Each structure stands twice: as C-alpha cells, then as structure tokens.
Amino acid sequence: MKGKRMRMISPIQFEFLLNMAEFPTIDSGISSGASDDLDYPPISKQKRKILSKQIKWRKVDQTPVSEAPDGESGYQSETSPINLIDGDSEANSLPRNYSEVVAGNGKSDDQSPSTSSPRTYSAVVAGAAQRGNGLLRSNSTKGDQDQITKTIPLTTISRMDILGDSICLYYEKVTQAEGTLFRKLRLRDALYYRIAHYFPVCGLYIVGSSLNGFGNDKSDMDLCLMITNQELDQKTDAINVLRTVEYLVSSIPNLQSCQLIEAKVPILRILFKDGLTVDLNANNSVAIRNTHLLCYYAFSDWRVRPLVSIVKEWAKRCNINDASKASFTSYSLVLMVIHFLQCGLENPVLPSLQDKYPEVFDSRVDVRTLNVSVPLDPPVQIGNPDIPLGQLLIGFFRYYAVVYNYERNVISVRLGRLVERSELMSRNRVQWSPICIEEPFTLLNTAHSIFDVNVFNAIRAKFQEAYDILSQTYDIEKLLEVEPYRSPYAFQPSSSQS
Length: 498
Description:
Strands 3-4-7-6-5 form a five-stranded mixed beta sheet, sandwiched between helices. The protein has a two-stranded antiparallel sheet with strand order 1-2. By secondary structure, it is an alpha+beta fold. It has a domain at 126-169 and 300-479: Poly(a)-polymerase, middle domain (Orthogonal Bundle), CATH 1.10.1410.10. The relative contact order is 0.14. Helix 6 (157-174) packs across helix 11 and helix 11 packs across helix 12 (330-343). Residues 1-45, 47-142, 145-149 and 491-498 have low confidence and may be disordered. The chain has helices spanning 28-32, 45-54, 99-103, 121-125, 142-148, 157-174, 178-196, 209-212, 237-249, 285-298, 304-318, 330-343, 353-356, 389-403, 421-424, 453-473, 476-479; strands at 58-59, 93-94, 203-207, 221-226, 255-261, 267-272, 277-282, 409-410, 419-420. It has 17 helices and nine strands. The longest helix is centred in the C-terminal third of the chain and has 21 residues, at 453-473.
C-alpha cells in the first residue's frame, strides 16, 4: 500500500510449504489456467458478428465438443456444460451467452454490449392449459397437497405467459455480460502473475457467482488462491498468506484499496478504481467444489437461471440476503431454489447431481481436475419440461411460505430428497438453526446466520407476502416493490450485488 511499508513473509515461514512434494508439481500455466500472453489483440467486428450469431437463444446440438485439458482451465472461464439438455423440445433452448467466446479463446472489448438475443420463452409456456404434469407437491398434510396441486385456470394462462416473459426480460437485463466476464478474466490473470512469482505452484480460481452461472453484471469477483493440497488453519496460516498477497498486489496501477477481513474464512477485499471488487480467500477449496456443482445445475435447464435471478433480486429488495443481518446468503438462496426444483413439485425438474454422478462431484476429487466445460455422461435427465417459468416462481414462494416443514426437515441438495433433521442432526448440533440448509460438501448449515426465531418468522412472512402478490397480480414489478424488512441487527438495507 502507498505510504505503508509491509514486511513480506518468507515462504519458509509457512510450515505447510516445507514439503511441496505433497502438492504435485505441474506446469504453472496449466495450474493457474492463466493465459500465456495478456496482450491479446481486440476481437474484430466481423468475428464479433459471427460469435453473436452463434450465441443466440437456440437448441443446443448434441455434437461432441473437443474436451478442454484437465486442470483448472475450466475455472478461468464460464464455459457452460455442454450436452446437459436432454430431448429436443423448444423448452430446452439454452442461453449460452459467452460460453462459445471463451471456449474459442476470443476476447471482447470491455465496453462491448452484451449480445441481444431473441426470446423464445412464449413457446415454452404456450399451451399450458393442456398440461397436466406441472403440479406442485406438498411434503406436509394431505390438505396442503390438495390445495397446492390445483391446475392453472384457463383465465390465468395469458397472465402466466406475461409473468414468465417478464422474468426472462429481467434476467436478460441483469445477467453477466461477455465484456464483464473478460474484464474479470484479465484481472484474474494480472493478479495471478503477481502472486505466482512468490507461490510458484499456486492456482488462482474464479469461484462464486461470476462463474457458476448465477451472477449478474454487478457481481463482485470471488477468487480462491490454492497454494497446497493440505488444510490451512484459517485463523493463522490463511491470514499470513493473505497479508503476503496484500503486499504482492499493492503495486498494481489500478488498485484503490486493500482490506483484510478476519472472518471465519478470512478474505482479502481488493477494490479497483474501475469499481470492480475482488474477494480473495486462501485454500478454501469447498468454494471451488460448490462453484463446479452449481454451474452444472445452472445449465441443466433453461429455467433455473432466470428463476434464481429474480429470487435473489427479491431477497435483496426485502433486505433478507445478508448474513451479517441474520438472514440468508446468496448461496443459501440458490440452494433453496434447487431444492424446490428437486422436491417441491409432483414431477421434479432437477435430480441430485451428486447422487447421479458421484464420481464427478466427489469431495475427494482434486480440485485442479474439475472442469465445467466437460459434459456429463450420460446427459442430465430433466423432468417436467412443460411447467411454465411463472408457475415455478409462484410455487417457490408458496412452498417456503406454507408447505415446507422447517421444524422437521433439512434442505439437502446433495441427497435431492426430503430429509428429516433427526437423520443429520447428530453430525453437528451447534450448526442447526430455525432453518437448515445443508452445504453439499461440508454438510454444515449454510443458514446458520439465521439464529433468531423472530427474524426467521419475519423472513417466512416475506415468502407469504411474495406468494400473495404474485398469485393475485402476476406482476414482478409489484413483487420487487415490497417494503424491506428492518432487521434488528442492522438499520440499513442490504447493498449486496452478488
């Protein structure tokens, strides 16, 4: 930092680095996934037009693609998993945004507008009156099930179409653009080259919403610095590593400030003058694993990303998406949406990927071999392809307002089924709270920040309010005009953008 001398810690002071044989030596270019040359020429206008045509909303073909090399190269771009969509229904049209650009190592200018894509969602929701398999399922009483599994009246079909289209319009408006992704990729490369001189076998991974498919254009970039395959003491070793990184990046020209935040998982928050914020952690490998997992969920069905997008924005407007205010994290909200698509419908939309592909999503797999561009084999079997997006959103809010049994059950994306607390409680009694959301790899409760029953009841009331608004108006504008919840643990609305 300017005006402040910092003592750089020698690698010999880190005991876990003394025996580097335990961390297999691999080529640093592959290890980091970094580009060999940061000075790529800008993409030509003609090439950009060709790429724009390739990434329109369209059905994904089943033509095999060349596999990316093993290693973490898949974590330096948001290449969407290919061949995840089963069947040839129009409902399987998949927005692939920037995946083909990245796969082809193309670059775009930071100011280039995101591709404008024609919407085909109306074809997905058209004819909903003839569908009979899009029924919600209750995990509570028979009376709840009878009430929640009613078919949509004919008079609401057109309103349901409008609701679905408005959700998609919102998603297209806020989703992460190609230029934003490439800015993050170049910045990641710049940071890697600063750090790799000191930690020569390190890997620097993009994690979180920037890569898992659920990010928006204002999302911060989360990075995970892996310097060893051994566990680090997050209270001592990780903090020392981050202090060293703070020194190493302090001379970057575009740097505005650095702040070391000593939390349960300490992070180095790096703010750049162009407004981009980077949160960097040390050796938190679970962040890489859950990014890998969520990316496959995000691209398994076209409805998942728009649904998550509107739920996250609603939670932000309600001021219930900030763990520091005893409410949800964005990660917990994503897991709640996936759980609903697994367990909240008569015919589930999503399976448990960890159950169907245990060898791919095994917590013992070396994180350097994870690659989001490798298709799952066989492709994911998607259920309930005809249920409209608007109906899924309404069903989501009703499920968590009146159907889901918080006292008895645990939200487990890992198992993909309803799980009672008694089945998992013995693992870690301290972690459980009014709502239990199991982390797919650590098996801890991602909603442990919701420890106050009064706050939990207020949050649950927000789900009921959202259901009432949508079921009466079918209008997401009214949904997003809700009064924010005034948390007793903070007085200002959440400003989280991720």
